[in-house]
Amino acid sequence: MxxxxxxxxxxxxxxxxxxxxxxxxxVVDDGIVSxxxxxxxxxxxxxxxxxxxxxxxxxxxxxxxxxxxxTLESPVERPTNLVGIGLNYVGHAEEGGFDVPExxxxxxxxxxxxxxxxxxxxxxxxxxxxxxxxxxxxVVGNTLSRASPVxxxxxxxxxxxxxxxxxxxxxxxxxxxxxxxYRSKSMATFTPLGPWVTPVSEGVDPDNASIETxxxxxxxxxxxxxxxxxxxxxxxxxxxxxxxxxxxxxxLTGTPAGVGEMVPGDTVEVEVExxxxxxxxxxxx
Length: 285
Prior knowledge:
The chain is α+β, with helices and mostly antiparallel strands. The chain contains seven helices and 20 strands.
């Protein structure tokens, strides 16, 4: 893997380069980024405009750069829906003192919480206990409404790594007050995504992909999507029963056991097998 933990296969990224004034979309292949000839600057915008993997790949004919020459942005910038699945690993439910759910638990995060790979997760001044939560992320490719698990799987564009940053102290206050989890998970920079999105055809197995989170180089979470309580198809299907998912939407499928505190100065890496490594630092306001 390269500087962003690049794996075999191709990926879609949003990036900036010194030769261009705006963010661009590109296809990453073997450490080289080929610019996609499009006005869209993020994958969610391209999918909303009707693009798919084939059409984007056909237009990856622009300038080429090494991944070491570019600055990565979040591949998904402002999806219609940014959804998290809660308590979807037995170990995480147990460490939080919760029962394993009998049906998926899902919650909304503000799309404005999305931030880029290599960017700084800012500890909001109201937060005392800031936690990392490494997650396997799914990017929706087709509109999903009351979809079956099979239809939901067929509607996936690809996969990414995510960090469902959580203000744990505020979350517990809200749980005690029977309030939603929204504010504890939606502050600016609380959803790093990336380093890119790996299309379904590039071989990532959502039922058997390892996921590992490292804090300052030490492994703090290590699991596999085969440990999900509700697999990717079941989770997306359930969400789509109540919320229409649009192309470009992101669903974070849950975090394994091992969540914990991160403080300013820390570096957090979330590595998803077949996708790559999402790296962020933690900073003060």
